[in-house]
Amino acid sequence: MPSEMNILTSASLVRCLGDEAKFVDKLKIKVRLPNDKLVVGKLWKYDYKYNIAVVKTKSFPEFHAAHVHNGVKFNSELFQANLVAIGRCYESGELMASSGRVLYKTSRLDCQELMISTCKITKAGIGGPLIDSSGNFIGMNFYAKDETPFLPVSILLKCLKHFEIFGRVVQPWLGLRVGSLRAEKLSICEEIRKSFPQAHGIYVEMVSEGSPAACSGIKVGDLISTLDGIALSNAQQFHELIFDKAECALKRSEGIVFKVNVLRPSDCSGFIATINGEEVAMIKQNRFFLTHHNYFIEFLCGCFQ
């Protein structure tokens, strides 16, 4: 049995109250276990953009680590499945649960990889797991006033892999925000179908001025149908492919370059664009902020192997 266990939680834990862009000096972490015992935890890795942190603490044989895997497919079946968001009260350790489903909706928070569920949680649920009826780990919950965003397991696993390989999460800046067609307004979908009846791909919602995406010729309203020759069906797939490409490029000490097939409904045209991704320091990345909570991690099913 390993001498330490890893606990996945929110990076809100390590942010300063007055300036959330800064790291808390001399941070002391206490982990409350299900038996109400408090143990000392040590921060291992964190990432501001995805608001995740991994805390290490002593292993306890009576607690079993969750087997987090990427077998969950974000398809139509998952969007119809019943899900449960889990959290614990800070002081009492009382377990809380809320049921719901995944929505075809884009999060308003500044992290486009986030997905949305109808599970209603309080701020005590930040960093807690979202699971399905079979106990499969679907993602990690965050809090917003009118919705419950979560970071899907596919992205979390890639972040953890980057922690192990590079010591940080490597996610190149492209300067564009994309969305799945099913999550877009009906008027947008109708306009695309008029120009490209059989089109598939992801919709470009935003392009930053002077960004790699803008320099490649991509504009708001375009449709990206393939990335490096792989047909795109949803935004989640796009984000996962970006992670994989960044990992391969850094291992080979190469630039992070993407070739995408672009369809432009406004004039029924199409072209191949080359995007030169830029790696930026974590502290300069866009990140979504959440209300700070107590410096306690409630032990849920967030420990993993």
List the helices and strands and how they pair.
Blueprint: E1 4-10, E2 29-32, E3 38-47, E4 52-58, H1 76-80, E5 83-88, E6 95-100, E7 102-103, E8 115-117, E9 129-132, E10 137-141, E11 148-152, H2 153-166, E12 176-180, H3 186-195, E13 202-207, H4 212-215, E14 223-227, E15 230-231, H5 235-251, E16 257-264, E17 269-276, E18 296-298, E19 303-304
Helix pairs in contact: 2-5
Pfam family, one: PDZ
Protein name: PDZ domain-containing protein
Organism: Panicum virgatum (Blackwell switchgrass)
Strand order of the largest sheet: 6-5-9-10-11-8-7
Q: CATH superfamily of the domain at 176-278, please?
A: PDZ domain
- Globally, the shape reads globular
How far apart are the termini? 11 Å
Order of helices and strands: EEEEHEEEEEEEHEHEHEEHEEEE
Instruction: Write down the CATH class of the domain at 176-278.
Output: Mainly Beta
Report the strand count. Answer: 19
CATH architecture of the domain at 176-278, by name, is Roll
CATH-defined fold name of the domain at 176-278: Pdz3 Domain
Count of helical segments?
5
Please describe the biggest sheet, giving its number of strands, its sense, and whether it closes into a barrel. Answer: 7 strands, antiparallel
Strand-pairing-aware structural class: alpha+beta
Question: Can you walk through the features of this model?
Answer:
With 305 residues, the chain is α+β, with helices and mostly antiparallel strands. Among the domains are: 76-167, Thrombin, subunit H; 176-278, Roll (Pdz3 Domain), CATH 2.30.42.10. It has helices at 76-80, 153-166, 186-195, 212-215, 235-251, and strands at 4-10, 29-32, 38-47, 52-58, 83-88, 95-100, 102-103, 115-117, 129-132, 137-141, 148-152, 176-180, 202-207, 223-227, 230-231, 257-264, 269-276, 296-298, 303-304. A 7-stranded antiparallel beta sheet has the order 6-5-9-10-11-8-7. Helix 2 (153-166) runs parallel beside helix 5. It starts with a strand and ends with a strand.
